[in-house]
Amino acid sequence: MQSLLERFLGYVRFETRPDDSNTSSPSSVNQMIFAGRLADELEKIGLSEVTLDGNGYLMATLPANNGTQGTVIGFIAHMDTSPEAPSSEIKPQVHPGYDGKDLLLNPERKVILSPAEFPELKKYAGQTLITTDGTTLLGADDKAGIAEIITACEYLISNPSLRHGKVRIAFTPDEEIGRGADNFDIKRFGADYAYTLDGGGIGELEYENFNAAAATVTVRGRSVHPGTAKDTMINSIMVAGAFDSLLPQYERPEHTAGYEGFFHLYDIRGSVEETVLKYIVRDHDPVIFARRKKILEEAAETILKRYHGAEVNINMRDQYFNMKEIIEANYYIIEAAVEAYRKAGIEPVIKPVRGGTDGARLSFMGLPCPNLFTGGHNYHGRFEFIPLQSMEKAVEVIINLVTSANESIK
Questions:
Q1: Considering 141, 142, 148, 175, which one is annotated as catalytic?
Q2: Annotation says 298 is catalytic
Q3: Where are the domains of the chain?
Q4: Which of 41, 80, 133, 142 is flagged as catalytic?
Q5: Rounded distance, CA 58 to CA 144, Å?
Q6: Choice among 178-182, 193-197, 353-357 with the minimum mean pLDDT
Q7: 2-209+322-408 — its CATH code?
Q8: How far does CA 164 lie from the centroid of its chain?
Q9: What is the pTM of this model?
């Protein structure tokens, strides 16, 4: 557990925020720097076929030691962190023997992680929690997944009596901006199936995810000196606000759960002359998903009628789709995961992902790839935390999957 903890604490200190405005892969130089650091580590612990390509995709092999060339299982995690919260100069804090009460993360700013606001904290009383200092996200999404995969590989290398087939691992860039699978080489990866380590609390097992789109709405107005602006100024900031007000007000992340979709305005920047709004659009149902995209277009049409002289342009692109149909056709992968969870003393909680993973797109590309828990909570924000014991259980699940792969897959 100490090795796992030290590895994770080292990883989160790397700033790997993606840059959606950059079309390169990876979208930020820091992701490539982190990938290079990981490549060195993979070679050091004894993995083979370690490759880092020009697009920032890192792959490696844990060779078979059971004398067979049977099923090849893969494990995947992403290197970038959410662009929605501060992620530079991350200062993780370790809290051994958490007492189940309020945690003071930052005395100066009086930032408190409280079970009154986050009741799930109570079930981790007595465990070791890793948190932020209340000023940044933590980055467990998805550096916990990376740490868990590498720790499991290291353990298997150190314990050759645990027999297993060939294992492939991959770490990808730009998952948080929907581009994690853009340049993923399925053939080079060479796995029969895989799992992403990109889920939440202990026990979660997911093979349904949102259909997802990203939309950039650009509103252009007309800047005029405010002293002579009557009937001539078109304030794009105000027009942008009117645009957002046309979207269903209770179909937003803070008002939805389960299978309910949403519109999420996650960035807005502007001036009188021009304002840019960035949305993500999500829904599990493909018909409702298509309707949501149409609602954005209809809102733009309404604004153009209401504000003569204004311009509204929408740039919308699909990011990924619900992998449910692919995984259900290969349900043995879920059965294998359920068995691995129970062997580790965990009862699986099969639930839909209220988000997405690289596995969604990879499944449609020919690599069935459901999602396993990493153990973290409150991703993408200052109140993110992860219990070390949950991370250890994720490592155990990976080991169980690897050592039973060729026995459980028919």
A1: 175
A2: no
A3: 2-209+322-408, 212-320
A4: 80
A5: 16
A6: 353-357
A7: 3.40.630.10
A8: 28
A9: 0.87
